[in-house]
Amino acid sequence: MKKQFLYLLLLAASLPARACDICGCFMGITPYDNQSGFMLMHRYRIFNGYQALGQAHALFPGGAGWLRPSAGLNEDTGYKHAHRGDPTDFEAFRVVELRGKYFLSQRVELNAFVPYVMNTEQANGKQLNLSGLGDITVFAGYHLIRAIETAGVQSRLVAGGGLKLPTGNFRHANAAGVRYQMLSQTGTGTTDAFFYASYVASLHGFGLSLTPSYRRSLRDNQFQNRLAPSATTFANLFYRLPLGQNWQVYPSAQFYYEKTAGEMLDGELTHEHALNDALLGPGLDVYYKNFSLNTSVQLPLFTAPTDHPASAGRVVLAVGYSFKQTKYLLGRN
């Protein structure tokens, strides 16, 4: 009988915290061990409702659009960055991302994420939409623990790191030539280094994974602007439901936490877009042979006080394909 193993891979530092979730690189729970493959993922993160005014927070506010902006791409209807308590204000960040993973050996993996970013901000009835190639991420992971053929508890520990490269446009400006704020941009203009560790264990169909990560910009962009260091944690409790020979379903409960002190200008914290949020929600992953469908919705569990629209949740939808790998460039180990 074919050995089955459950593991989760999470990454830190894809793009800016508010723009696309520092973490939020959920690769999905997969029943296949050491398989290279690719995935197309859509991530949606929304902020709306002012806490101090007691306003409600909606996952899909009017005018936002889930899969893509409701208005035209790269369109400015007179938007000005100002938070005056308008209940229709929101910030929506979407990423459509192509992800590839390749195992050089059973313990060494390489990953690359290529994002297409669609950001929307609305303030006082005026909207800004910016879209384009985002900051590409490359990283490697080493499997320190690979106890997948043992009786009882199976486990894996992966540690690694990589770089977020400044490939996205961070110079978008209005008709008067005034540059939009940093987190409206589709890129940051900075090279960021990050480190992560991911541990997962399973027993009798139940599984638990935990992934902490840390990101830090290596230098300012040409506007002397960068994001402060950030930390994220992702925890996932899941259960495997085999449905026949080819189908498997994984319901899960997913916890996501991120914290950053916000933007920096000329080496000093501005505290603009500081973030300290925890989210919790259900996930459902479906596998048919080597094809996968990964879904999750997470809603606010805790949000630190902010004068910006508050976190209202995130939605992840992904489809992927994995292929069985029997040969490795670096050998099996």
How would you describe what is shown here?
The protein is mainly beta. The protein is built from one helix and 18 strands. The strands form two sheets. A twelve-stranded antiparallel barrel has the order 1-3-4-6-7-8-9-11-13-16-17-18. The protein has a three-stranded antiparallel sheet with strand order 10-14-15, with no helix packed on it. The chain is globular and about 60 Å long. The protein starts with 16 loop residues before the first helix and ends in a 9-residue tail after the last strand. The model is unreliable at 1-29 (pLDDT under 50).
Summarize this structure briefly:
This protein is mainly β and 333 residues long. It contains 1 helix and 18 strands.
Keywords:
mainly beta; 3-stranded antiparallel beta sheet; about 0% helix; disordered N terminus; Lipocalin; about 325 residues; 1 helix; globular; 12-stranded antiparallel beta barrel
CATH class: Mainly Beta
Number of domains: 1
SSE class: mainly beta
For the residues shown, what is the average pLDDT? 86
Q: Going across the biggest sheet, name each strand in turn.
A: 1-3-4-6-7-8-9-11-13-16-17-18
The main sheet comes to: 12 strands, antiparallel, barrel
Query: Tally of extended strands?
Result: 18
Q: Report the sheet-strand fraction.
A: over 45%
Any idea of the CATH topology?
Answer: Lipocalin
Helix and strand sequence: HEEEEEEEEEEEEEEEEEE
CATH level-two architecture: Beta Barrel
In CATH, the homologous superfamily goes by the name Autotransporter beta-domain
Total helical segments: 1
Helix content: under 10%
